[in-house]
Amino acid sequence: MIDAVTAALFLATAAAAIMAIRGSLPLLLVPGAAVAQALTVGALSLAAAASLRAYDRLLARLPGRQLLWLVPLTDLALAFAALSLPLALPGWLGDHEFWKDVTGIPPTPFTRLVTLMFGLIGLQVAYVFARLLARYLADPRSWHAGPRDNLTSLVFASGLVVLACVLLYGQAHRPQNIVYMQGWYALGAGGRPADAFRAFAEVVERYPDSGFADAALYRMARIEADDLGHPAEAVSHLRQLLARWPDSSLADDALEDLGELSLGPLKDPAAAEKSFAELRRRFPRSYLCERATLGHARALARLARAADATRLLDDLERAPHRTRIVTEDEDGAPRVQATEAALAEVRAGLGK
Fold first, then answer.
1. What are 65-95's pLDDT values in tens digits?
2. What pLDDT, in 10s, does the model give residues 120-162?
3. pTM, full prediction
4. Who wins on pLDDT, 65 or 33?
5. Quick one: which of 69, 163, 185, 252 has the most CB atoms within 10 Å?
6. In a 3-state reduction of DSSP, which class is residue 202?
7. Residue 231 shares a structural domain with residue 91
8. Where are the alpha helices (H) located in the chain, listed in sequence order?
9. Which tens digit of pLDDT belongs to each residue from 287-338?
10. Same domain, yes or no, for 153 and 268?
């Protein structure tokens, strides 16, 4: 129990520090994201405690040096599979938006949350290895080993390196993945939206059948709108995304952005009303439903249909809904607002 609590404190502190650096701490106010983070930390902490207990029980049967590689390697494989399979399963079953809707957060914060979870696996394995190394060095008898033990240790060490290389190569050797990551880095850490735009455009043009093409086109639209100040071009990219990949996991995000751009800089409330209505019709379970309903009401008010707008807001207030609305700024950092507060703001603006 003490090992699990110690691991949980270490992982929770590391996660909070990483989220603070990335500007993602507001996600802890979102129930779905907070629960996902807590479950990940809890599961990895229990796995760390189990690994340490397994080391103590197996030490009487296997040399300590061999266990020093075997236990972390097994822990890494099990933890990676335990996180990867639940994340991938809904997509295999055709529901690509399941986890995004469950957590209730936009694409960029969601991507950062998932990468943080996988990063915590690396930190947990490092924590387990450090604890095991301390136990190994504290027991001088486990230092002495014959040639066979040295060979076994070398095999396990090589297996760990090979596993890491296979996982990295499985993703990095694909040129579309490399180009997409170059765009992601240029947009995020590099602060070079023009370079990012070119990289994403290359993914769309050269690798339209890759799993990143729709995401790249969506990023192009966001760059046009947020960084380059070209809302009309952004709308064109979003419509292209919906036409080419109607079942994309970003289709609801594209419709939401279409509505906001039409209602805002393009001043086309009729187009905005159409986009918001389509989002609500096609994706009734989407994490964007509350935002789409509020946007739909604003568009109806601009079209002099205040009664319809009020009815939408009343329906939203009465029906079960998410307690938090999450948006993202130009840097991908999340912004969290209580749904009731957002609803009150829109209702107050209907008469203006």
1. 777 778 888 888 888 888 888 888 887 887 7
2. 999 999 999 999 888 888 876 666 555 555 555 556 666 666 7
3. 0.81
4. 33
5. 252
6. helix
7. no
8. 2-22, 31-58, 64-92, 98-103, 107-138, 147-172, 175-187, 193-206, 213-226, 231-244, 251-263, 269-282, 289-302, 306-318, 339-349
9. 999 999 999 999 999 999 999 999 999 999 999 988 888 887 766 678 888 9
10. no
Q: Please tell me the distance from the alpha carbon of residue 100 to that of residue 8, in angstroms, as a whole number.
A: 25
How many Å separate Cα 76 from the centre of its chain?
A: 20
Report residue 53 CA to chain centroid gap: 32
Residues 6+ apart with CB under 8 A from 232: 266
The residues facing 325 across adjacent strands are: 337
Q: What is the DSSP letter of 27?
A: G
| Tokens 């699990």 sit on residue | 4
Are 131 and 54 a contacting pair, CB within 8 Å? no
Q: Render 237-306 in DSSP notation, one character per residue.
A: HHHHHHHH-TT-TTHHHHHHHHHHHHHTTT--HHHHHHHHHHHHHH-TT-TTHHHHHHHHHHHHHHTT-H
The verdict on residue 178 lying in a domain is no
CA–CA separation, 46 and 68 (whole Å): 19
312 with 201, same domain: the answer is yes
User: Residue 246's domain spans which residues?
Assistant: 191-349
CA 279, CA 290: separation in Å to the nearest integer? 11
Confidence of residue 9 (pLDDT cuts 50, 70, 90): very high
For residue 19, give every residue at least 6 positions away whose Cβ sits within 8 Å of its Cβ, in sequence order, or none. Answer: 25, 27, 28, 116
Rg of the chain's alpha carbons, rounded to an integer?
24
